[in-house]
Amino acid sequence: MTVIESTTDINQPVANVYAFLADMNNHQQLMPENIYNWSSTTDEASFTIQNMAKLAIKISNRVENQELTAIPTEKPPFDLELKWTVADNGNGGTTATLIISADLNMMMKMLAAGPLQKLADHQTQKLAEILN
Fold first, then answer.
1. InterPro entries per the record (predicted)?
2. N or C: which end of the chain has fewer CB within 10 A?
């Protein structure tokens, strides 16, 4: 399993950051420009990644003010899990981490690891921009 992580600090309480992430409608704001055909509800989102694939995900697990896990609703090219964790950073703010776990073979890892890391970094950076 390939695990890709990106972390950011937000100057807001955990409950605010969790509330934003708990609504899949807000995730469109975190996506890079190569994402289109976005459609979402509170629990699910579907979108197309330019020159790659169409993806549909749903929140499969919620632990209030701690973590959210999203998994594909349709069979993706490889098993995938997106997990956001939020924790108090001790300064009245929140440390938010996006963890992407993907079951990639060696060839897929060479092709997909870089873009997945860029996606994770982009999403945490956008989260910080929006909520700070």
1. START-like_dom_sf
2. N
